[in-house]
Design goal:
Elements (H helix, E strand, L loop, with lengths): L34 E6 L3 H13 L6 E5 L27 H7 L11 E4 L4 E4 L2 H10 L18 H16 L1 H6 L4 H22 L12 H17 L14 H11 L10 H11 L48
Parallel strand pairs: 1-2
Antiparallel strand pairs: 1-3, 3-4
Helix pairs in contact: 1-3, 1-7, 4-6, 4-7, 6-8, 7-8
GO molecular function, one term: glutathione transferase activity
Keywords: Transferase
InterPro entries: Glutathione-S-Trfase_C-like, Glutathione-S-Trfase_C_sf, Glutathione_S-Trfase, Glutathione_S-Trfase_N, GST_Omega-like_C, GST_Omega/GSH, Thioredoxin-like_sf
Protein backbone atom coordinates (compact mmCIF):
# COMPACT_ATOMS: atom_id res chain seq x y z
CA UNK A 1 0.00 0.00 0.00
CA UNK A 2 1.47 3.37 -1.02
CA UNK A 3 1.12 6.40 1.21
CA UNK A 4 3.67 8.82 -0.22
CA UNK A 5 2.26 10.86 -3.11
CA UNK A 6 4.13 12.52 -5.95
CA UNK A 7 3.71 15.99 -4.51
CA UNK A 8 1.62 17.30 -1.63
CA UNK A 9 -0.32 14.76 0.44
CA UNK A 10 -4.09 15.28 0.23
CA UNK A 11 -6.34 13.41 2.66
CA UNK A 12 -9.43 11.74 1.22
CA UNK A 13 -12.24 13.31 3.23
CA UNK A 14 -15.17 11.56 1.56
CA UNK A 15 -16.59 10.21 4.79
CA UNK A 16 -20.03 8.68 5.31
CA UNK A 17 -21.98 11.64 6.63
CA UNK A 18 -24.97 9.78 8.08
CA UNK A 19 -25.58 10.86 11.66
CA UNK A 20 -26.93 9.07 14.73
CA UNK A 21 -29.20 11.61 16.40
CA UNK A 22 -31.65 11.86 19.25
CA UNK A 23 -34.53 12.40 16.80
CA UNK A 24 -33.29 9.82 14.29
CA UNK A 25 -33.67 12.20 11.36
CA UNK A 26 -31.15 10.26 9.26
CA UNK A 27 -32.87 6.99 10.06
CA UNK A 28 -30.55 6.10 12.94
CA UNK A 29 -31.90 7.18 16.34
CA UNK A 30 -29.73 7.10 19.44
CA UNK A 31 -30.42 3.80 21.21
CA UNK A 32 -28.48 2.11 23.96
CA UNK A 33 -26.92 -1.15 22.79
CA UNK A 34 -27.82 -0.73 19.12
CA UNK A 35 -24.48 0.50 17.80
CA UNK A 36 -20.84 -0.51 18.04
CA UNK A 37 -17.96 1.94 17.89
CA UNK A 38 -15.05 0.36 16.03
CA UNK A 39 -11.61 1.80 16.75
CA UNK A 40 -7.91 1.13 16.76
CA UNK A 41 -5.88 2.43 19.67
CA UNK A 42 -3.13 3.24 17.19
CA UNK A 43 -5.16 5.78 15.22
CA UNK A 44 -5.32 9.39 16.48
CA UNK A 45 -8.73 10.00 14.90
CA UNK A 46 -10.16 6.92 16.60
CA UNK A 47 -8.40 7.80 19.84
CA UNK A 48 -10.53 10.95 20.02
CA UNK A 49 -13.71 8.89 19.99
CA UNK A 50 -12.32 6.55 22.66
CA UNK A 51 -11.55 9.52 24.91
CA UNK A 52 -14.91 11.24 24.40
CA UNK A 53 -16.85 8.01 24.94
CA UNK A 54 -15.02 7.50 28.21
CA UNK A 55 -15.27 11.10 29.44
CA UNK A 56 -19.03 11.06 28.82
CA UNK A 57 -19.52 7.62 30.36
CA UNK A 58 -21.08 6.01 27.31
CA UNK A 59 -19.49 2.60 27.79
CA UNK A 60 -22.76 0.85 28.68
CA UNK A 61 -24.75 2.53 25.88
CA UNK A 62 -22.20 2.25 23.07
CA UNK A 63 -20.06 -0.88 22.92
CA UNK A 64 -16.58 -0.71 21.43
CA UNK A 65 -14.70 -3.09 19.14
CA UNK A 66 -10.93 -2.75 18.99
CA UNK A 67 -9.00 -3.59 15.85
CA UNK A 68 -5.35 -4.53 15.93
CA UNK A 69 -2.63 -1.93 15.36
CA UNK A 70 -1.88 -2.89 11.76
CA UNK A 71 -3.90 -3.34 8.59
CA UNK A 72 -3.41 -4.16 4.94
CA UNK A 73 -4.76 -2.57 1.77
CA UNK A 74 -8.20 -4.09 2.41
CA UNK A 75 -8.99 -2.84 5.90
CA UNK A 76 -8.52 -2.98 9.64
CA UNK A 77 -8.91 -6.45 11.15
CA UNK A 78 -10.12 -7.83 14.47
CA UNK A 79 -6.99 -9.86 15.06
CA UNK A 80 -6.98 -9.10 18.80
CA UNK A 81 -10.20 -11.06 19.32
CA UNK A 82 -10.49 -14.85 19.70
CA UNK A 83 -10.65 -16.41 16.27
CA UNK A 84 -9.93 -13.05 14.67
CA UNK A 85 -13.61 -12.03 14.74
CA UNK A 86 -15.32 -9.19 16.53
CA UNK A 87 -17.44 -10.89 19.22
CA UNK A 88 -20.46 -8.64 18.62
CA UNK A 89 -20.40 -8.09 14.86
CA UNK A 90 -19.01 -11.51 14.00
CA UNK A 91 -16.77 -10.12 11.25
CA UNK A 92 -13.04 -10.46 10.60
CA UNK A 93 -12.58 -7.13 8.81
CA UNK A 94 -14.18 -3.73 9.23
CA UNK A 95 -14.48 -3.74 5.45
CA UNK A 96 -17.35 -6.20 5.76
CA UNK A 97 -19.51 -3.63 7.56
CA UNK A 98 -18.85 -1.03 4.88
CA UNK A 99 -19.72 -3.48 2.10
CA UNK A 100 -22.87 -4.50 3.96
CA UNK A 101 -24.18 -0.99 3.45
CA UNK A 102 -22.39 -0.09 0.21
CA UNK A 103 -21.44 -3.20 -1.82
CA UNK A 104 -19.39 -1.07 -4.24
CA UNK A 105 -17.76 1.13 -1.57
CA UNK A 106 -14.56 2.53 -3.09
CA UNK A 107 -13.31 4.93 -0.42
CA UNK A 108 -11.11 4.39 2.59
CA UNK A 109 -12.12 1.88 5.26
CA UNK A 110 -11.34 4.07 8.23
CA UNK A 111 -11.65 4.16 12.00
CA UNK A 112 -13.46 5.34 13.97
CA UNK A 113 -16.60 3.88 12.48
CA UNK A 114 -19.96 3.23 14.06
CA UNK A 115 -21.78 0.08 12.96
CA UNK A 116 -25.48 -0.72 13.31
CA UNK A 117 -25.38 -4.05 15.14
CA UNK A 118 -28.76 -5.46 13.97
CA UNK A 119 -27.89 -5.04 10.28
CA UNK A 120 -24.10 -5.26 10.52
CA UNK A 121 -23.85 -2.19 8.27
CA UNK A 122 -21.66 0.84 8.89
CA UNK A 123 -23.55 4.01 9.77
CA UNK A 124 -20.76 6.60 9.74
CA UNK A 125 -17.00 7.05 9.74
CA UNK A 126 -17.11 10.86 9.89
CA UNK A 127 -14.62 11.17 12.76
CA UNK A 128 -15.08 14.90 13.35
CA UNK A 129 -18.86 14.60 13.56
CA UNK A 130 -18.82 11.43 15.66
CA UNK A 131 -17.30 13.03 18.75
CA UNK A 132 -19.48 16.14 18.52
CA UNK A 133 -22.59 13.99 18.22
CA UNK A 134 -21.54 11.89 21.20
CA UNK A 135 -21.58 15.16 23.15
CA UNK A 136 -24.77 16.65 21.75
CA UNK A 137 -27.01 13.77 20.68
CA UNK A 138 -26.24 11.06 23.25
CA UNK A 139 -27.00 13.17 26.33
CA UNK A 140 -29.69 10.76 27.56
CA UNK A 141 -26.94 8.22 28.21
CA UNK A 142 -24.20 10.47 29.57
CA UNK A 143 -22.97 9.53 33.03
CA UNK A 144 -23.84 11.71 35.98
CA UNK A 145 -21.15 14.39 36.17
CA UNK A 146 -20.17 14.12 32.50
CA UNK A 147 -18.32 17.22 31.30
CA UNK A 148 -19.68 19.56 28.63
CA UNK A 149 -17.07 19.13 25.92
CA UNK A 150 -18.83 21.33 23.38
CA UNK A 151 -20.54 24.13 25.35
CA UNK A 152 -22.81 26.33 23.29
CA UNK A 153 -21.22 29.55 24.55
CA UNK A 154 -17.77 28.48 23.33
CA UNK A 155 -18.73 26.59 20.20
CA UNK A 156 -17.60 29.21 17.68
CA UNK A 157 -14.20 29.54 19.33
CA UNK A 158 -13.79 25.77 19.60
CA UNK A 159 -14.61 25.42 15.90
CA UNK A 160 -12.09 28.12 14.98
CA UNK A 161 -9.33 26.47 17.02
CA UNK A 162 -10.20 23.01 15.68
CA UNK A 163 -10.03 24.22 12.09
CA UNK A 164 -6.45 25.48 12.29
CA UNK A 165 -5.29 22.63 14.54
CA UNK A 166 -6.65 20.10 12.07
CA UNK A 167 -5.14 21.78 9.02
CA UNK A 168 -1.72 22.55 10.47
CA UNK A 169 -1.16 19.94 13.21
CA UNK A 170 -3.49 16.90 13.13
CA UNK A 171 -3.24 16.57 9.37
CA UNK A 172 -0.05 18.63 9.15
CA UNK A 173 2.13 15.82 10.47
CA UNK A 174 0.74 13.55 7.73
CA UNK A 175 1.32 16.22 5.08
CA UNK A 176 4.97 16.27 6.14
CA UNK A 177 5.31 12.51 6.48
CA UNK A 178 3.64 11.60 3.20
CA UNK A 179 5.02 14.46 1.12
CA UNK A 180 6.40 13.32 -2.21
CA UNK A 181 8.67 16.30 -2.83
CA UNK A 182 11.11 18.38 -0.84
CA UNK A 183 9.05 21.48 -1.46
CA UNK A 184 5.81 19.91 -0.21
CA UNK A 185 7.56 18.52 2.85
CA UNK A 186 9.16 21.82 3.81
CA UNK A 187 5.90 23.71 3.39
CA UNK A 188 4.10 21.26 5.68
CA UNK A 189 6.99 21.24 8.16
CA UNK A 190 7.09 25.04 8.41
CA UNK A 191 3.32 25.28 8.73
CA UNK A 192 3.27 22.65 11.47
CA UNK A 193 5.87 24.29 13.65
CA UNK A 194 4.51 27.80 13.14
CA UNK A 195 1.20 26.52 14.48
CA UNK A 196 2.85 24.69 17.38
CA UNK A 197 4.64 27.93 18.29
CA UNK A 198 1.32 29.80 18.30
CA UNK A 199 -0.30 27.09 20.38
CA UNK A 200 2.57 27.35 22.86
CA UNK A 201 1.93 31.07 23.14
CA UNK A 202 -1.79 30.51 23.63
CA UNK A 203 -1.28 27.85 26.28
CA UNK A 204 1.43 29.75 28.11
CA UNK A 205 -1.15 31.67 30.12
CA UNK A 206 -4.17 29.36 30.04
CA UNK A 207 -4.54 25.74 31.05
CA UNK A 208 -6.85 24.67 28.21
CA UNK A 209 -7.32 25.75 24.62
CA UNK A 210 -10.79 27.28 25.01
CA UNK A 211 -12.32 28.41 28.28
CA UNK A 212 -11.22 27.03 31.64
CA UNK A 213 -12.29 23.42 31.17
CA UNK A 214 -11.44 20.52 28.88
CA UNK A 215 -13.30 20.76 25.56
CA UNK A 216 -13.44 19.04 22.20
CA UNK A 217 -10.48 21.24 21.17
CA UNK A 218 -8.18 19.70 23.79
CA UNK A 219 -9.18 16.17 22.82
CA UNK A 220 -8.31 16.86 19.18
CA UNK A 221 -4.89 18.35 19.88
CA UNK A 222 -3.95 15.80 22.54
CA UNK A 223 -4.05 12.73 20.30
CA UNK A 224 -1.47 14.25 17.94
CA UNK A 225 0.78 15.40 20.77
CA UNK A 226 0.63 11.95 22.36
CA UNK A 227 2.11 10.46 19.17
CA UNK A 228 4.60 13.19 18.45
CA UNK A 229 7.85 11.86 19.90
CA UNK A 230 7.01 8.18 19.45
CA UNK A 231 6.17 8.54 15.74
CA UNK A 232 5.90 11.94 14.08
CA UNK A 233 9.29 13.35 15.10
CA UNK A 234 11.25 10.59 13.40
CA UNK A 235 8.94 8.61 11.12
CA UNK A 236 7.28 11.72 9.64
CA UNK A 237 10.42 13.91 9.79
CA UNK A 238 8.75 16.50 12.05
CA UNK A 239 12.06 16.98 13.78
CA UNK A 240 12.65 20.66 14.55
CA UNK A 241 11.94 19.79 18.17
CA UNK A 242 10.58 16.85 20.10
CA UNK A 243 7.49 17.46 22.18
CA UNK A 244 9.70 17.08 25.26
CA UNK A 245 11.73 20.06 23.96
CA UNK A 246 8.67 22.34 23.73
CA UNK A 247 8.11 23.21 27.42
CA UNK A 248 4.57 24.58 27.29
CA UNK A 249 3.13 21.92 24.99
CA UNK A 250 4.95 19.15 26.85
CA UNK A 251 3.50 20.30 30.19
CA UNK A 252 0.03 20.71 28.61
CA UNK A 253 0.19 17.22 27.11
CA UNK A 254 1.30 15.69 30.43
CA UNK A 255 -1.51 17.49 32.23
CA UNK A 256 -4.07 15.90 29.91
CA UNK A 257 -2.30 12.53 29.91
CA UNK A 258 -2.58 12.41 33.69
CA UNK A 259 -6.28 13.37 33.55
CA UNK A 260 -8.63 10.35 33.74
CA UNK A 261 -9.96 9.54 30.29
CA UNK A 262 -6.85 10.61 28.38
CA UNK A 263 -3.65 8.76 29.24
CA UNK A 264 -5.55 5.60 30.09
CA UNK A 265 -6.64 5.37 26.44
CA UNK A 266 -3.11 5.53 25.05
CA UNK A 267 -1.24 2.40 23.97
CA UNK A 268 2.22 3.35 22.78
CA UNK A 269 2.97 -0.19 21.63
CA UNK A 270 0.01 -0.14 19.24
CA UNK A 271 0.88 3.38 18.10
CA UNK A 272 4.46 2.53 17.18
CA UNK A 273 3.58 -0.78 15.57
CA UNK A 274 0.96 0.81 13.34
CA UNK A 275 3.05 3.58 11.83
CA UNK A 276 6.35 1.74 11.52
CA UNK A 277 4.93 -1.58 10.31
CA UNK A 278 2.20 -0.32 7.97
CA UNK A 279 3.97 2.57 6.20
CA UNK A 280 6.48 0.42 4.33
CA UNK A 281 7.16 3.04 1.65
CA UNK A 282 8.58 5.20 4.46
CA UNK A 283 10.02 2.38 6.59
CA UNK A 284 10.66 -0.55 4.20
CA UNK A 285 12.08 -2.95 6.77
CA UNK A 286 9.14 -2.47 9.14
CA UNK A 287 11.47 -2.14 12.12
CA UNK A 288 9.76 -0.63 15.16
CA UNK A 289 12.04 1.67 17.19
CA UNK A 290 12.75 0.69 20.78
CA UNK A 291 12.51 4.30 22.00
CA UNK A 292 11.81 6.94 22.98
CA UNK A 293 11.82 6.84 26.80
CA UNK A 294 8.18 7.48 27.66
CA UNK A 295 8.43 7.56 31.45
CA UNK A 296 8.33 11.36 31.50
CA UNK A 297 4.60 11.33 30.78
CA UNK A 298 3.94 10.71 34.47
CA UNK A 299 6.17 13.47 35.84
CA UNK A 300 4.69 16.62 37.49
CA UNK A 301 3.53 19.25 34.99
CA UNK A 302 2.71 22.26 37.18
CA UNK A 303 -0.23 23.35 35.04
CA UNK A 304 -2.54 23.54 38.07
CA UNK A 305 -1.00 26.95 38.78
CA UNK A 306 -2.89 28.31 35.75
CA UNK A 307 -6.22 27.48 37.38
CA UNK A 308 -8.93 25.88 35.32
CA UNK A 309 -11.32 23.10 36.25
CA UNK A 310 -10.74 20.01 34.09
CA UNK A 311 -14.35 18.79 34.24
CA UNK A 312 -16.07 22.07 35.02
CA UNK A 313 -19.02 21.39 37.31
CA UNK A 314 -18.75 17.69 36.52
CA UNK A 315 -16.57 14.88 37.79
CA UNK A 316 -13.83 12.70 36.32
CA UNK A 317 -14.67 9.25 34.98
CA UNK A 318 -13.72 6.26 37.09
CA UNK A 319 -9.99 5.71 36.79
CA UNK A 320 -8.54 2.93 34.71
CA UNK A 321 -4.91 1.73 34.68
CA UNK A 322 -2.66 3.61 32.28
CA UNK A 323 -1.45 1.49 29.37
CA UNK A 324 2.00 0.04 29.83
CA UNK A 325 4.80 1.95 28.18
CA UNK A 326 7.02 0.13 25.72
Amino acid sequence: MAYVESGEFTRDQRYIATRITADGRDGFPVEAGRYRLVVSRACPWANRAIIVRRLLGLEDALSMGVCGPTHDERSWTFDLDPGGRDPVLGIERLQEAFFERYPDYDKGITVPAIVDVPTGAVVTNDFARITVDLSLEWTAFHREGAPDLYPSSLRDEIDEVNEVVYADVNNGVYRAGFAGSQEAYEEAYDRLFRRLDRLSERLGSRRYLVGDTITEADVRLFTTLARFDAVYHGHFKCNRHKLTEMPVLWAYARDLFQTPGFGDTIDFTHIKRHYYEVHRDINPAGIVPAGPDLSGWLTPHGREALGGRPFGDGTPPASEPVQQFA
